[in-house]
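**User:** You know discrete backbone vocabularies at least as well as I do. Would you mind producing a protein record, from residues through to fold? Write it directly below this note and I will take it from there.

**Assistant:**
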Amino acid sequence: MPPELAPTYYLDNFRTVLASVSAAYADLLNEEEADFLQRFAALSTDAQALLVRLVMRTRDVYVAGALDYPEIGGVPAALQDLAAAGWVDPDAALSLDELFATATKLQIVAGLADEGLRRSQSKSALREHLAHRAAERLSLGAWLASSSLSAVRLLVRPLMDRFRLLFFGNLYQDWSEFVITDLGHLRYETVSFGREARGFASRQDIDACLRIHVLRGQLEEEGDPAALQACLDDWPDSLSPHVRSRVHKLRFHVGNAAERAGHWPLAESLYLTCEYRGARHRLMRVYEQQGAWDAAFETAQAILAHPASEEEVQATHRALPRLARKLGKPVVKAKPLMSPASDELQLPERPAVSVEQSVAEALAHPPRAVHYVENALFGSLFGLTFWEVM
């Protein structure tokens, strides 16, 4: 059975994040981050728990009256503390889309009755009916003509993302990582990292990773590689090798998007200055698409002279005959990767003895002993070697 979690397990995990970040990156934190660490520690437990509850949710705007957690004794008082700290807006102004994401259909129909809305309409139809009010930003109470309703907006999501980046080293892992670990669904080996092994060596490393995350999101949402081209060259020279590799990975993905859109010159320029694995092979393919056969062939030769990976070598070998024919060059077949030595045994048929046992007996010559163990030997040796980690 999964372990039973404490009511405020999420707060304990969040405190672990803050303590780890403070210990590892105290010298790299900006004023806002350092200030948050001090002010959060001074909050009541209820206020801390409520903030973490909001941070762990997927949206940033919620109906205030719907915030109800049994382990938090005084939600209204905690909300006031968070508002005083400037971390939530207790009566936020909402756009029309945020209204529809926050309020129920019945609340919208009742609160905007003068707009001629009907309960039989779907929520999407109601949104279309109110399209003429898309530019407005009103409090929830003003939208729905109710003084008892208000919406809470979380204001520190970007700050929380920075702490998440510093703790995990990336932004694709989120707060749910703690939950699945606490429940035993996922286990990590405990490893001690010295200060010299931290993921970010400077504040520029941190800011660069945050910028990469934003640009990657823009690429996924808008899909326009040309719009990002100007953002791919302006990076500090002092970035650590680890973070610089992320910059080149972003350049590679933008190059992929340029290929998909048929922007061959843009893809070529991106791959020419990209050090991410596979970029040279993609450059070769872009040259092919543009009919630049000499450049494609030269790139293939450069890859084979100094390959970055076996995958790159195999892909290039597949392309070489095609490129050679285009240029009228002799087609050279790739040599096999490996020609292993082999022995052949002719064994008499022994129905009562398995083939494996017959081979073992044939290969056994004193002082050499041969034992047939199926797959058990290496699995057992692996388990014994890494038993503590497993």
About this structure: Confidence is low (pLDDT under 50) at residues 180-186.
